[in-house]
Amino acid sequence: MSELALMRKKISREREARKAAEQLLEDKSRELYLINKELEKRSNKVTEQKEKLQKKVDELQLTRSQLVQSEKMAAIGQLAAGIAHEINNPIGYILCNLSSLNEYLDDLQQVLKKQTECMGNMYVTKGAEKQAIRELAELKKQVGLAFILSDIDQLMKDCMEGAHRVKDIIAELSEFSSIRNPGLTREDINELIEKAIKVAWNELKYKAEVEKQFSELPLVLCNGGKLVQVFLNLLVNAVQSVESRGVITLRSRHEGSLIWIEFQDTGSGMPEHIVSKIFDPFFTTKEVGKGTGLGLHVVQSVIDSHGGKIAVSSKVGKGTLFRITLPVDGVLGMESD
Ligand SMILES: Nc1ncnc2c1ncn2[C@@H]1O[C@H](COP(=O)(O)OP(=O)(O)OP(=O)(O)O)[C@@H](O)[C@H]1O
Ligand SMILES: [Mg+2]
């Protein structure tokens, strides 16, 4: 073959090879374009799913905070029942005393009327005084004036005491509600525990002896209302763990920039596998309707928000000990709602 023919053949082969390469490039570009499109579609789908998931997470968080709120409401409902019971007692004897006082007042009015008549008679009819005085003495005996006069003092004292008790309960209640205690204040933790005991007293008194081993504490920067709720949840759990009768020991100590408090009971105690779950929301071993399983979850979030810690140790059949440690001066960024 001539050199020219060879050259032509080479050029034609090269042209074909170029054409094939161009075709391949075009095919690959198209493929790439399609893959790109597909990726874009998928990425849009992923973003969409991510948004949907975020929405679900937001919804769940809202439900969770609503549940925590409803746990608070349930706790307040339980308290309200206890407080109603506590108020019922003093109001009961105040009413009873008032009805006795009402009867006494009738008798006293009769005596006074008679006495006035006597005084009148003495001036008007000479010699009638003996008869009038006799009648008066008779009436005094009849109504039991001596007893009335001595009993009036006691009844009044009891009424005053009962009314003061009701006033104290109401004061405790309004302090407990977040309306009067909205933010951070310096509080005596021993006093807050006392408040929780008073509120839970109705449940405690039948099943547990409360032993206080408090020591003097510095005032702690905290949300008092929320801490009372924490102490209340721990007290209620402690008393609920007691089968028939037990002891709840409460301790408090100050150590440097911290304070700690302990709630110890002689109740049922818990095995290790239960202890590891007690702070989980909705974990409860109590029968349906008795526990929501949010008590300790609320306890932990309140203690966390105060920059504190909570630890637990428990022995089946022996009892449980919760220890809360709190910084005296609170923590930066502590919520102040
Ligand atoms: N002092 C305790 N002794 C024994 N078990 C306890 C004690 N405190 C908590 N528990 C266990 O931890 C579980 C969770 O407690 P938590 O307070 O969170 O919920 P709950 O008491 O069951 O219900 P509630 O929401 O009414 O408080 C309880 O069901 C109980 O099994
Ligand atoms: Mg509880």
Structure description:
The chain is of the alpha+beta class and 337 residues long. It has 2 domains: 77-176; 185-327, Heat Shock Protein 90. The protein has 7 helices and 7 strands. It has helices at residues 3-124, 129-143, 145-176, 189-207, 224-241, 272-275, 295-305, and strands at 185-187, 208-213, 220-222, 246-255, 258-265, 309-315, 319-327. A 5-stranded mixed sheet has the order 2-4-5-7-6. Strands 1-3 form a two-stranded antiparallel ribbon. The longest helix is centred in the first third of the chain and has 122 residues, at 3-124. It is elongated. Bound molecules: adenosine-5'-triphosphate and magnesium ion (MG).
Please render the helix and strand layout as text.
Elements: H1 3-124, H2 129-143, H3 145-176, E1 185-187, H4 189-207, E2 208-213, E3 220-222, H5 224-241, E4 246-255, E5 258-265, H6 272-275, H7 295-305, E6 309-315, E7 319-327
Parallel strand pairs: 2-4
Antiparallel strand pairs: 1-3, 4-5, 5-7, 6-7
Helix pairs in contact: 1-2, 1-3, 1-4, 4-5, 5-7
The structure holds adenosine-5'-triphosphate and magnesium ion.
Residues 71, 233, 237-238, 241, 265, 267-268, 270, 274, 278, 283-286, 291-297, 320 line the site of adenosine-5'-triphosphate (ATP).
